[in-house]
Amino acid sequence: MKLTKIIKQIKPSTIIFLLLSIIFIIPFYSYCETFWLKINVIDIKDSDIPNSFAGKTIAFVSDIHHGPFLSQERVHNIVNKINSLKPDIILLGGDYVHRNVKYIKPCFKELSALYAPSGVYAVLGNHDHWESKQISKEEILKAGITLIDNKAKWIYIGSDRIKIGGVGDYLEDTQNIKPTINDVKENDFVILVSHNPDYAEEIRTNLIDLVLSGHTHGGQVSLFGMWSPILPSKYGQKYRYGIVETSYCKVIVTSGVGTITPPLRFCVRPEIVLLTLKHSD
Fold first, then answer.
1. What fold, for 34-279?
2. Which of 72, 83, 114, 263 is most buried when burial is the number of CB atoms within 10 A of its CB?
């Protein structure tokens, strides 16, 4: 009875205002949120991390989607923001462009300015295959970035080392994990970059400590950061966003930087992930 009485007391003008808010204000805010870039700082504590690497930082960036909704100027600003963090390593998670091959060269012209003392490493995403796998690979190399699709590299500080590997895109390429794990031991710290987090379900080894992925954009639009209606994943909400523990490894899924169509985000801000390595007993 009380609820019915309250509803009857709501003025028509109030109802109209609420409807207009839904129709205009929320979409406007969702468009503005695509520009609201944040730095997501995460500590990675692991006994496999050598003491020489304790305190070292890794910037992880995925899904830039340079194209009609994210300008070259914004890519330039993103690069400046990453460099301002002074990371020791930079990892790029794929999907650099959106909709047209013409965006590949200008995107990597900007990404060529990325700098990290221990290198910049990248994998391709599904959109990079769709626009042009070959041109993307060529521009990555021209930019001085190391492509790690189905490849891996040891990073050294003195005699201590960690390994960084990558796999080809889960939708458009093959995945070969052997280069990443073929010469590692149980006490080595190993990071794998896979554009699509669904690949984590294929991992059946304890030799990989951390998987870094993008692809899902956190859903782009979510119910206050808890649930998204549309996710490009076979596993429902599991790999939407954040830290996911599997039976074999830890997975970090970033919300990415750019968007696909429509260029909207709601409670899923774009981000640069900054990992700090810490040795844990």
1. Purple Acid Phosphatase; chain A, domain 2 (3.60.21)
2. 114
Q: Quote the DSSP letter at residue 18.
A: H
State the CB neighbour count (10 A cutoff) for residue 196.
29
Query: Tokens 């991390």 sit at which residue?
Result: 49
**139: Cβ–Cβ under 8 A, 6 or more apart, which residues?**
104, 105, 107, 108
* DSSP code per residue over 86-127: --SEEEE-S--B-S-GGGHHHHHHHHTT---TT-EEE---HH
Tokens of 208: 């990989």
186 alpha-carbon distance from chain centroid? 27
Instruction: Name the pairing type of β-strands 152-157 and 146-147.
Output: unpaired
**Largest Cα span, the chain:** 75
Q: What is the pTM assigned to this prediction?
A: 0.93
> Is the Cβ–Cβ distance between 58 and 89 less than 8 Å?
yes
pLDDT value, residue 23? 73
User: Which residues, given as ranges, of the chain have pLDDT below 70?
Assistant: 1-11, 14-18, 20-21
Distance of CA 232 to the CA centre of its chain: 14
Q: Residue type at 235? A: Y
